[in-house]
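Tutorial handout. Part one gives the primary structure; part two gives the three-dimensional structure as tokens.
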Amino acid sequence: MTSLLLDDVTLTYPDGDGRLTALDRVGLHVPAGTLTAVVGPSGSGKSSLLAVAATLVTPDGGRVVVDGTDTTALSPAEKSALRRDRVGIVFQQPNLLASLTCAEQLQVMAHVSGRGHRQARAKALELLAAVGLAAQAGRRPHQLSGGQRQRVNIARALMNDPAVLLVDEPTSALDHERGAAVLDLLAALTRERGTATVLVTHDRAHLERVDRAVTMTDGRLAERAVGAA
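Part two.
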């Protein structure tokens, strides 16, 4: 089953007297339980692709289908509910709240969706264990390494059991070894939890860990051999 589909998507932005094409008739399908990497130079459209896939930006044309729901005609409130319940986003910087413990970072996400405290706590501890941080559940961000903070970031994005997981440069602030560990974790969680995961990355060294890789150039996608330099 395809959990994320971008069909003939075009996105433009105002640019002086004209418009700049950020996405040029992009097509992308990501089946559940698979990890797709998107690589390409800065300004090629990767961030725009993630924004459209997350329904944060409405394209000029084409369709975005998330977990079987065509988002084209959804109202802003309906898109917000879809993002909350079906889309997880892992930002480049974890942006963890300094005053909260690891478990509390995740519990906040559950409370937004209306889960009770006991259920949210149990889910948070389950996910922290899944990312190898069971022993750090009571620690705050300043007590964690960079790699551990990024693992909390990933666990937080999974808190509401999303069908689609969108990941933006998760290893940019990590050394190669810690970056590789984070990519291994993402790949494992994608398959275990059946998410359709899209990873935007500049680090081609990790592409052997993904199921599929595509290259974005000037707003267009092209297939790329996995592991290609």
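Part three, for discussion. The helical segments are 46-53, 76-86, 102-112, 117-130, 146-157, 176-193. Residues 2-94+163-224 form a domain with the Rossmann fold fold (CATH 3.40.50.300).
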